[in-house]
Design a protein that fits this description.
Strand content: 15-25%
Radius of gyration: 24 Å
CATH topology of one domain: Glutamine Phosphoribosylpyrophosphate, subunit 1, domain 1
Strand order of the largest sheet: 2-3-1-9-8-10
CATH superfamily of one domain: Aminohydrolase, N-terminal nucleophile (Ntn) domain
Mean pLDDT: 87
Number of strands: 17
Number of helices: 24
Shape: globular
Length: 619
């Protein structure tokens, strides 16, 4: 895990100082080594911060070069099948000077060109300069575990692992992109084909880009996509599917346990992390597990569930008990997030990452299980609602939806669901919107005409599948997982210089889940994660509770009832320079005090304001 930043241009750069500043703005991503390199003609600059995981020697230093072929690379992430690729490349005539996966990646490109991407199993972003072809090749892994931002200014391309590295260049603009802000307020994150800053982009997951330094032009393409569901899978034997799932998961965990530094597991006690722990024990006789608890908060405290799994598998288990967050933690997190996300679970993710880093440099987690195998509650609710809506006339649905919007205050339970009655159920959007279009327009009243861009974009996400669950899981995998969950995990862990790995996002498992597992074995109107829970019956202790579902969350509502966190929220949102309408904000705060569910909405506004002020972003 590392941080990369660089530039390529049709002309030589005369301002090079910003590159080192941008690199060091990501010092948390790589405290072990730094590197910077410029091409002889001054048209390409590559810089790197290294977190040493494989081959801890200086041989793994970046930028790395294959001088005989005029190739140079900066790379962030891990190639889990690098050992197999190395053996294949040696057989094809390549030789190696190190034991790093970066050198293997260079050789892959030398052998297969941009087609090397189909050979890689890992989480990664990289930028590879091919001097003979005068082009820069950039790519991002299939699930989007590793980030890559870029900005094209005339004939010059700038790129980095984090947006803050690009903002270190004083010549680049810092203005809010309203469409991205509208999406953020609607769903809690900025979509992959948008960026919170005008003129900037994110390279989407499973995409690659070539920058032609002769023309100053870019070519972006998708190199991988989710497989279609194979209809003949409906008749596949459930036992055969279960056997294949167990084998794939065991292989994925085994691959991701490989490192030259200590590796641990984040154990919440839920289905996903418990299965990862079980498989980790098959690969190593000494496994360290870590969990975070919230004493006095009932179901939010999962320490007992995690303790059960740790005892059963004999892991070296460590617990962290979280207290109400210090008010100064939120500004620190806002500074870390290049684009704010409305996910308060970033707080426990940060806290447990901080704990783990005291013992390990790498940790495995259970991210991806919900999207692949039907774990979210709205998958069951959508199926129940679909059945119910068939008997409600459309005019009545429209009337109820309009009445809910006008008569029910924001935060009243069920308001989002009632508002969603007037749309066709293609996904779970009506169930998860933070602010509806009317409220967003009111929040952005100082900017007339804004607050209405998100809906068309969001509904364009809906995959063309007749199966409701196929549509919902595919949309969540391609959007919510990539732009919320994985962003949260990457930034919160890297702030502590911890590499997080997600075995459930091994692309073999992804393709298995979407190509072979029928919806009936994912979620029904009453059950979730059906196939995955069948696997728990095989390998987890009998007393494990397979029916509970508790996300990685915090008691934010309780913390907002008073104290420093409540004061911080009020201070930020009632500031005269706040971007959002004071009347709407006061209504949200009063509603929260009356027991409405506005904590995440308030969290979204506070995080955006803290972020905007930290980086001097204007409208």
């Amino acid at each position: 895990m590392c941080g990369i930043v660089g530039t390529a241009s049709v002309i030589a750069s005369h301002k090079r100082e910003w590159l080192a500043v941008g690199r060091d703005a990501m010092a948390h991503r790589g405290p072990d080594d730094i590197g910077e390199w410029w091409s002889e003609d001054g048209r390409v600059g590559l810089a790197h911060r290294r977190l040493s995981i494989l081959d801890l020697s200086p041989s793994g230093h970046q930028p790395m070069h294959l001088s005989a072929l005029g190739l140079s690379i900066v790379f962030n992430g891990e190639i889990y099948n690098f050992a197999e690729l190395r053996n294949e490349l040696v057989w094809l005539g390549h030789s190696f000077q190190s034991h790093s996966d970066t050198e293997v990646l260079l050789a892959c490109y030398a052998q297969w060109g941009t087609g090397c991407l189909s050979h890689l199993n890992g989480m990664f972003t990289f930028a590879l300069y091919d001097e003979p072809k005068q082009q820069l090749f950039l790519a991002r892994d299939r699930a989007g575990e590793k980030p890559l931002f870029y900005h094209l200014d005339g004939g010059t391309l700038y790129f980095a692992s984090e947006l803050k590295a690009l903002m270190a260049n004083p010549a680049l603009p810092r203005k809010v992109a309203f469409e991205a802000l509208d999406c953020y307020l609607a769903i809690g994150f900025v979509p992959g084909n948008r960026c919170i800053l005008q003129g900037y982009n994110k390279l989407p997951a499973a995409h690659a880009m070539l920058f032609d330094m002769r023309q100053g032009s870019t070519n972006v393409w998708r190199y991988w996509q989710l497989p279609e569901y194979a209809e003949n899978s409906d008749v596949m034997d459930e036992g055969a599917l279960l056997n294949e799932l167990e084998t794939l998961l065991e292989n994925a965990v085994s691959r991701q346990m490989v490192a030259d530094v200590p590796v641990g597991v984040l154990l919440s006690g839920g289905v996903d992390s418990s299965l990862v722990t079980a498989m980790a024990v098959r690969s190593s006789s000494q496994v360290q597990t870590f969990t975070i608890g919230f004493p006095g908060h009932g179901k939010l405290d999962e320490t007992e569930h995690a303790r059960l799994i740790a005892r059963h598998f004999g892991t070296q288990h460590t617990e962290l008990m979280a207290e109400p967050i210090a008010a100064d933690l939120l500004p620190s997190l806002a500074r870390q997030f290049d684009e704010p996300i409305v996910d308060s679970s970033v707080i426990p993710t940060f806290l447990v990452s901080k704990l783990v880093r005291q013992h390990c440099t790498v940790a495995l987690g259970g991210d991806g299980g919900d999207e692949l195998f039907g774990g979210y509650g709205h998958y069951s609710r959508l199926q129940r609602i679909q059945k119910q809506l068939g008997v409600i006339p459309r005019p009545l649905r429209n009337g109820v939806a309009l009445g809910a919007e006008k008569l029910l205050p924001v935060g009243v339970k069920g308001r989002n669901w009632l508002q969603g009655l007037n749309v066709d159920l293609g996904n779970g959007l009506p169930l998860v919107l933070h602010f509806d279009a009317t409220t967003r327009r009111r929040l952005l009243a100082a900017y007339p005409g804004r607050g209405q861009e998100a809906e068309a974009l969001l509904h364009s996400w809906i995959p063309l599948h007749t199966d409701l669950l196929q549509r919902a899981t595919r949309m969540d995998f391609s959007n919510y997982l990539t732009e919320d969950i994985l962003v949260k995990v990457d930034r919160a862990s890297m702030l502590n210089s911890l590499e997080m790995r997600s075995p459930l996002l091994d692309y073999h498992l992804i393709e298995f889940a979407f190509n072979k597992v029928p919806s009936r074995l994912k979620a029904t109107q009453t059950e979730k994660k059906i196939l995955l829970k069948s696997l728990t019956s095989r390998i987890l202790p009998p007393e494990f509770d397979r029916h509970r579902k508790q996300g990685f969350s915090i008691p934010l509502t309780e913390w907002l009832k008073g104290g420093a966190v409540r004061e911080l929220f009020a201070q930020v949102l009632r500031d005269s320079q706040c971007s959002f309408d004071a009347g709407v904000v006061d209504g949200l705060l009063r509603g929260q005090d009356k027991g409405r569910s506005n904590s995440e909405r308030l969290f979204s506004l506070v995080l955006f304001e803290l972020w905007r002020k930290e980086y001097g972003v204007t409208f």
